[in-house]
Amino acid sequence: MPPAKKPAKITAPRHAPPPAPGAEGPPVEIAKALTRKPSRKMAREMLTLETRRLRAVFSEIAERYVAEMEARIASVVHAMETKTLPPGKIDAMLKTVRGLTVKPQKGRRKDLARIEKATEALFKALEE
């Protein structure tokens, strides 16, 4: 009787699996692709997207800041309307408001800071 033959060993191919239907070309190594410097066109597109996102974030922050300051000023107005204030305190608060110099047409941050500082001074004066 002839010796028994060993069954053939089945192994997986050593090359990459075939691309998925509709995909073309060899598989892309993502980590390697991310470490490469993007092309000028791609870098420009990325910059445009990031700048648009920055604009949206800026707008959101500005809206929230304005809403918070308007609420703070409204609370000061409400407190002035509901409390009985001595004449000396009214004069001091009027001086604070009248001493405020801002140029709204310029849209400067320092004007916002001045308004915020005056509002806080009025609020503190009401608490005393």
Please explain how this structure is put together.
- It is a single chain.
- By secondary structure, the chain is mainly alpha-helical.
- It has one domain (38-127).
- Helices cover 62% and strands 0% of the residues.
- The chain has helices at residues 30-35, 40-82, 87-98, 109-127.
- Helix 3 packs antiparallel against helix 4 (109-127).
- The longest helix has 43 residues, at 40-82.
- The mean pLDDT is 84.
Brief sketch in words of this structure:
The chain has helices at residues 30-35, 40-82, 87-98, 109-127. The protein has 128 residues and is mainly α.
Q: How many DSSP helices? A: 4
Q: Give the CA-based shape.
A: elongated
**How far apart are the termini?**
113 Å
Let me know the number of strands.
Answer: 0
Order of helices and strands: HHHH
**Tally of distinct domains:** 1
The percentage helix is: 55-70%
Radius of gyration (Å): 35 Å
Low-pLDDT segments? none
Q: Classify the secondary structure makeup into a structural class.
A: mainly alpha
**Biggest pleated-sheet summary:** none
Q: Average pLDDT value?
A: 84
Q: Which strand-content bin applies to the residues?
A: under 5%
Quick tags:
128 residues, mainly alpha, 62% helix, elongated
Topology:
Blueprint: H1 30-35, H2 40-82, H3 87-98, H4 109-127
